[in-house]
Write a structure and sequence with these properties.
six-stranded antiparallel sheet, 18 helices, alpha/beta, single chain, six-stranded mixed sheet, 15 strands
């Protein structure tokens, strides 16, 4: 609930603190004392556009701050958490500031926020009736949720919402499939050419190095044959002039040297190592020479392969890896085109199933909404006469949609007629602020147990009524206050006498400048205020006694 409202430099208010408690609180005062300014301050917390003209003369900025106690309000705390708003120790502070020059600012719990977010949070906490732009019950969406809550079929509405979301997701997949298929079909010839060209070439990621090495050997085959032959001849000349043959003849000398000087025994091992290495070298050169081919046709084929790979890289990627990847992508697109018919058939079957389930669930929802609408209308019409509208008619209209939406197959619209002979019109088109507030009061009386907004503010609820009707309106507001915190601005003593708390606003003068003050009334002060509101002499005993009787009746 709203525990404190702080207003600084707004219109004729220099500084004002309004502390509120649970139950029904009534604000009274002479016309022009500043009651509407307090309502306007609340409007700022609910997102109303800030005007620099509202800043008190001589001040550079105005501010409005609301402190809310949300202890035990699990649903509200969860809704705030979804919006990233943290609540510490159950307290939440909203603040708006209007500057004469410069941008306006807003805060939540001391942290800067957008005015839009402050307004969104404020509307979760306060429902203001009497100013059209802040009456949440005027929106069809809110009326639909009220009807579903009243009828107890929020779960069915949730089922419709889930089925609609599933159908929308499937339909989007179907559209995406069609888009992809259309795109692929437009490019099919190009894709087939590219895929065929790459698959026919069948490139391998590592083949360029292999081709380059083989081409180098073939292009130098004559020189390689000459070099291997000359080296082989030097190593193993069959006439005894080869290095290996001559080295073998020296073995006896090495063995004799090691025999005479045993300190040089390792020379024999070194000699054998060199001899066998030369012998192995000669053998390899001989084998190598036999394997070297002079094959111009093969070299020409390799050059053509290199040219082909070069063209592929220029078209599809700077590397063969990217060429291969491009080929795989084009093949996947073409394969997808072939599979799309099967995928389309499966999606269409799933869409038909979900569409049928959605139609069945939304049909059930329409039926229960129609029944609940009749029940709600009956209960509202029972209350309207007590609120000064004896000819009032209320109905819940279900307006069919062209297509079933997330909230069902119809829009929900509350309609009301307050005068005999006139057809009910949408609730949002009721002209009189007082009448509209009383219709809202009737709804709140019925829906108090369902409404999650903790604080209700009624302005103009007493417009055009008096006497017994005013007393009944006050009693109705007091009953609603058993479920909500209710704050009402009123000119009628019949309503003020029903309040749990009573405060009076009056215009005073400070340093020669008009200022608004607020005072909580208890005991005889409250009696005298009621006597003043009754229109008699507030000091005459008969007026005071009448006021005491009203207070006794209110209690």
């Amino acid at each position: 609930m709203l525990t404190e409202l702080r207003i600084r430099n707004l219109a004729v208010i220099d500084e004002l603190v309004v502390r509120l408690g649970p139950g029904l609180t009534v604000l009274t005062g002479e016309t022009g004392a500043g009651k509407s300014i307090i309502v306007g301050a609340l409007s700022l917390l609910l997102g109303e556009r800030a005007s620099t003209e509202a800043v008190r003369a001589g001040a550079d900025r105005a501010s409005v701050e609301g402190i809310f106690d949300l202890s035990g309000r699990v649903g509200l705390l969860a809704a705030l958490d979804e919006r990233g708003v943290e609540v510490e120790d159950g307290l939440l502070v909203l603040k708006r500031e209007v500057a004469v020059e410069g941008r306006n600012r807003a805060w939540i719990n001391g942290g800067q926020a957008t005015a839009g977010l402050v307004g969104e949070v404020g509307r979760l906490l306060v429902d203001l009736h009497g100013q059209h732009e802040h009456q949440t019950l005027l929106s069809r969406g809110e009326q639909r949720e009220i009807l579903d809550a009243f009828g107890g079929h929020a779960e069915l509405a949730g089922e419709v919402r889930a089925l609609h979301a599933e159908h929308a997701a499937l339909a989007e997949r179907r559209r995406e499939l069609d888009r992809r298929e259309a795109e692929v079909r437009e490019r099919a010839d190009l894709l087939r050419f590219q895929c065929g060209e790459i698959e026919e070439a069948a490139p391998r990621a590592d083949e360029e190095e292999e081709i380059e090495a083989e081409a180098r050997r073939l292009s130098h085959s004559e020189e390689l044959l000459e070099l291997s032959a000359r080296l082989g001849q030097v190593l193993e000349d069959p006439e005894g002039e080869g290095v290996a043959v001559r080295l073998g003849a020296l073995r006896r000398d090495v063995e004799r040297l090691a025999e005479l000087d045993r300190d040089q025994a390792e020379l024999t091992e070194l000699f054998d190592t060199a001899y066998y290495a030369l012998e192995e070298l000669g053998s390899r050169l001989a084998s190598y020479g036999e394997g070297v081919e002079h094959d111009p046709a093969r070299l020409d084929a390799l050059r053509r392969r290199q040219d082909l790979l070069f063209r592929l890289k220029r078209k599809y990627g700077p590397t063969l890896e990217e060429v291969i990847a491009h080929g795989e992508r084009t093949r996947a697109e073409l394969d997808g085109l072939d599979r799309s018919a099967f995928e389309r058939e499966a999606l269409d079957a799933e869409l038909a199933r979900v569409r049928e389930a959605l139609a069945a669930a939304s049909g059930r929802l329409t039926a229960v909404r129609r029944e609940a609408g009749e029940g709600l209308a009956g209960e509202v019409e029972e209350i309207l006469p007590d609120l000064g509208m004896p000819d009032g008619r209320f109905e819940t209209a279900l307006i069919p949609r062209e297509e079933t939406g997330a909230s069902g197959a119809e829009e929900v619209e509350f309609r009301v007629s307050l005068n005999r002979g006139f057809a009910p019109r949408p609730l949002r088109r009721v002209a009189s602020g007082g009448e509209l507030s009383r219709v809202m009061l009737a709804l709140k009386t019925i829906l108090a147990r369902l409404d999650a907004v903790p604080t209700l503010v009624f302005d103009e609820v007493d417009a055009g009524i008096g006497g017994e009707v005013a007393r009944r309106v006050g009693g109705t507001m007091r009953r609603v206050a058993s479920e909500h915190q209710v704050f009402a601005i009123s000119h009628l003593p019949q309503i003020a006498s029903q309040a749990h708390g009573h405060c009076r606003v009056r215009k005073a003068e400070r340093d020669g400048v008009a200022a608004t003050e607020i005072r909580w009334l208890e005991g005889e002060e409250r009696v005298r205020e009621l006597a003043r509101m009754l229109g008699g002499d507030a000091e005459r005993e008969v007026s005071l006694e009448h006021a005491r009787e009203m207070l006794a009746g209110g209690d």
